[in-house]
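Record type: monomer structure entry
Structure origin: computed from sequence
Chain ID: A
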Amino acid sequence: MAFLGSDFFERDVLVVARDLVGTELVWQGCSGVIVETEAYAAEGDPACHTASRPSARDFMQRQAPGAAYVYFNYGMYWLFNLLVKGGGREGLILVRALEPRRGVAAMRERRGRDRLEDLCSGPGKLAMALGIAGAHHGAALAGHGRPAGCGLREAPAALIVAADVRVGIRQAAEYPWRFLAPDSPHVSVPLGRVRPPR
């Protein structure tokens, strides 16, 4: 299967976030089918980093579509996002969960877990399982400069995709901008189970 090109990420961030579900993320000997994403719009979305971080706005301007936006969350976990720009709403997409496919032994070692469902069922978990860290911030996942052994492959088979509210945010918490395969046991939070913010 072919790797996705930059044009895949030159569309509306909500469309791309939905279409990423079912694609295969390939990363340095490991891979998994994306089963959950969250979209964050660069404009009009107070939950997006561009609303509060000048560095995120600078990243949006400087980087090409499909670039990895990697940041350290709560001093605990690296989170892996993808840049969308050049068509409709621009923004960032958080890859929240994968169904592991290749390199499972390495994922188990990094995570210290055996159950397949425990390896990548959350954004911090999947970054740890794949070995994604701050050094990968800005890496091209599509187009010119894509590292060997990294990228996103076309969906091997279409998945049913549902929309739900985003997880763990206080602002714009009602936006139904989380996209997931509702029948997958690998998602971080099942459909309809996100707790509203206090």
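Annotation 1: Helices lie at 13-20, 54-62, 104-111, 123-130.
Annotation 2: The beta strands are 24-27, 30-41, 68-73, 77-84, 91-102, 150-153, 162-164, 178-180.
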